[in-house]
Amino acid sequence: MKKLLGTLLSVAMVASLLVGCGSAAPADGASDGAKTFKIGGIGPLTGGAAVYGIAVKNGAQIAIDEINAAGGINGCQIEYNFQDDECDAEKSVNAYNTLKDWDMDILMGTVTSGCCVAVAAKTAEDGMFELTPSGSSVDILAGNDNVFQVCFTDPNQGIASAQYIGQSKLATKVAVIYDSSDVYSTGIYEKFAAEAPAQGLEIVATEAFTADNKTDFTTQLQKAKDAGAELVFLPFYYTEATLVLKQADTMGFDPIFFGCDGLDGILAVENFDVALAEDVMLLTPFAADATDDLTKSFVAKYAEIANGEIPNQFAADAYDAIYTIKAAAEAANVTPDMSVADMGKAITAVMPTIKVDGLTGKAMSWNAEGEVNKAPKAVVIKNGAYVSMD
Amino acid sequence: MSKQLKSNLITYGIIIAFFAIMQTLVGTGTISSLFKGLLVPICVYTIMAVSLNLTVGILGELSLGHAGFMCVGAFVSAFFSMCMKESGMNSIVRFIIAIILGAIVAAVFGILIGIPVLRLRGDYLAIVTLAFGEIIKNIVNVLYVGKDSSGFHISFTDTASLGLSSDGVVIIKGPQGITGTPNDSTFLIGIIILIITVFIVTNFVTSRSGRAVMAIRDNRIAAESVGINISKYKLMAFAISAGLAGAAGALYAHNLNTLNALPKNFGYNMSIMILVYVVLGGIGSIRGSIIAATILTALPELLRGFSDYRMLIYSIVLIALMLISNSPKAKMFFEKYSIKQLIGTKKAQKEEV
Q1: Which pLDDT score is estimated for A389?
Q2: In this model, does residue A33 exceed pLDDT 50?
Q3: N vs C: which end of chain A shows fewer Cβ within 10 Å?
Q4: B264 vs A114: CB contact, 8 Å cut-off?
Q5: Cβ separation B138–A210 shorter than 8 A
Q6: For A117, nearest residue in chain B (alpha carbons)
Q7: Looking at this predicted complex, what is its ipTM?
Q8: Tally of CB atoms within 10 A around A257
């Protein structure tokens, strides 16, 4: 019996393989005929990090619809395919291979840093141009000429935060709470801690939590309070930050809370009392309630396709990523019939020369390593809205 | 030819046939990039399933911490490769040493964990192994190891406290794990390790020690009464299982450029996933584990066409597979229309003629 089941299953396996191969073949033929740019995206659409992947998927979709309506890149329309990676490096490589079978020309991804390191190694092998909207670790860029970022790198955020706190004389005694199981959070914390002494800041308490244990922050807050911290630095995402703020309020601890771009989105959290976020400061490249026309139209379009949700900075980064790809592709004058490696080489060569005005910054430019150059904006929350601190 | 040997040969045959088919497809370029990329992960998860089958099927103890051993093997081997990367050592030799090292250290962890754990039985053992798997993952997540001219530095807080001199490099960066592991894993090496794994497990089962292990599984008191050293044989099976998982971990680590211990890849979810492979393939059946692991690794990727409903359909297919493979009616159906039966009837007919 077992033997038979084995045989049947192996037959099924071989059949499924053939199906896999079969579907790949006609895709090859189709791409030669139709002249479209195929832009692929990779990010988590399921699991704990899905909120970021979905935001990127939608943000990029808006940009692509706009570009297609306006005539496309170099007169060619864009095709868009976004694959789920479940925030797992191995699945991310699978998603990348799926997109390769689809004849992707340019990769907009991946959303999360860990996966991005694994995929960047693969795109570097193939010479494909890759622009990550939100993968912020420096390891993504190391040794990969073809990879560029739209968001700040983690170290830059940590250093910028320390400098901002020191130069604005917000506080001298600082406590840090960070997610030790997260690449983004640890990356910012390490650079912040290294830069703090130079800015005259004293780190009186360093408290960590992990992804498995992120609902109760009272211990960490109590230690920060006992150490006499005037400012608590929160380099992590807004979902945990809402809990920190609520628990700090319950225990009557009221220092200055300072965060990075991960805190962006905190005002949109359901059932969160916005009054708790009063006076919270954060460094962010994007504010959804900015009054310029570009942001307004983006927020309106995003609400349309995402059931009335307010876009966070991931969506904005993805929107800018697509426009950056357009600008670079036009500057390099590439066409869809070029090979992936040739196109990658041509676009990589022009990246340091272009300037892009987007949602997350004016006149964004890139260095040859792939880091973006744009100014972080410091905002403070007043009456439930961001107010610029400059 | 004994029945056992025949069955084993069929298993090797399936593996080698799978390898030959895939190699031809890769050689002729007819295979999709997706499947080419899946070949090494398939080897990793089949090795995991076969090795867990040793604990679950042969030893008869439920282990929920198998991904923890994979984690140990992955990190030890990747650490070794990172240290040796600059030394100009032949990459195949380096990888083989890395695999052996990963397997040995994972086996040592298996013994260390096995000593307290194997005193327990049944549900208690399952819960404790689950906890150990999580402990391993969490320790790796706070571990920082750097290397400079004066040797290795280890810290459990952050990179700054390593106190590296200016020429130092941080190899294990806590939650950021190890980045830049050389991509040494190939399908060929994966298949070789799989065959070695199957060889070790099937031979262990038929050996004197293996029979002792099965005697313990079937009746502990009876086994003890005939003088079998229970702790020794249990530990032996547990350590072999852990060591093989370590080898799979080494293969996993050298397939990707980045290695982090996340709940997704080394947490209890993965341990349970591997248990699912074993249960679906049939507890105690090595060939079943291999086939189930192959199908369930490839399945979520084959369902990508369903986009948003992918994981939903995957779960439904999983439930359906479990129900079908265990329903008496399906068994009857398969027995009636089995290939063996068909060949058998033909033979019978020939004899009549």
Answers
A1: 72
A2: no
A3: C
A4: no
A5: yes
A6: B258
A7: 0.87
A8: 23
Chain B residues with CB-CB distance to A178 below 8 A: none
Residue B1 reports pLDDT greater than 70 = no
Tens-digit pLDDT profile for residues B34-84: 999 999 999 999 999 999 999 999 999 999 999 999 999 999 999 999 999
8 Å CB contact between A150 and A133? yes
Residue carrying the six token digits 């396709």: A305
What angle, rounded to 10 degrees, do the helices at A2-33 and B339-352 form? 120
Chain B residues in contact with A137 (beta carbon < 8 A): 176
A290 has a pLDDT exceeding 80: no
What distance, in Å, lies between the first and last C-alpha atoms of chain A? Answer: 75
- How many angstroms separate the CA atoms of A114 and B40, rounded? 20
Q: In angstroms, what separates the C-alpha of A317 from chain B's closest C-alpha?
A: 23
**The predicted structure's pLDDT at residue B145:** 92
Collect all residues of chain A within an 8 Å Cβ-Cβ radius of residue B305. Answer: 23
* Cα(A20)–Cα(A24) distance, integer angstroms: 7
Q: What is the mean pLDDT of residues A136-152?
A: 87
What is the token pair recorded at B188?
């060929």
Residues of B with Cβ-Cβ distance to A1 under 8 angstroms: 331, 334-335, 338
* From B174, B304, B311, residue closest to A98, measured CB to CB: B304
Give the minimum alpha-carbon distance from A112 to chain B in angstroms, rounded to a whole number.
12
Residue B270: pLDDT band (50, 70, 90) is very high
Can you give the pLDDT at residue A11? 52
So where are chain A's domains?
35-152+296-373, 155-284
CB contact under 8 A, A121 and B14: no
Confidence (pTM): 0.85
Residues within 8 A of A (CB atoms), B 122-151 only: 134, 138, 141-142
* B317 vs A: CB within 8 A: no
Q: How far is CA B115 from CA B181, B234, B235, in A?
A: 33, 9, 7
Cα B161 to Cα B151: distance, rounded to the nearest angstrom? 15
Give the gap in angstroms from C-alpha B129 to the nearest C-alpha of chain A: 18
Q: Tell me the C-alpha distance between A306 and A266, whole Å.
A: 18
For domain A35-152+296-373, the CATH class is alpha beta
Q: Which residues pair with A385 in a beta bridge?
A: A382
Chain A residues closer than 8 Å to B295 by CB? 9, 12-13, 16
Amino acid at B11: T
Å from A19 to nearest chain B CA? Answer: 9
Q: Answer whether A364's CB lies under 8 Å from A372's CB.
A: yes
Q: Which of A12, A86, A96 sits opposite B264 (nearest CB)?
A: A86
Which superfamily, per CATH, for A155-284? Response regulator (3.40.50.2300)
Higher per-residue confidence, A182 vs B56:
B56
Residues 233-292 of B with CB under 8 A from A: 252, 255-258, 260, 262-265, 282, 285, 287-288, 291-292
- DSSP 8-state secondary structure symbol assigned to residue A390: -
Does the distance separating the beta carbons of A118 and B256 come in below 8 Å?
yes
Residue A292 confidence class, pLDDT cut points 50, 70, 90 = confident
- State the helix-helix crossing angle for B3-28 and B286-302, rounded to 10 degrees: 30
Q: Do B193 and B47 contact (CB within 8 A), yes or no?
A: yes
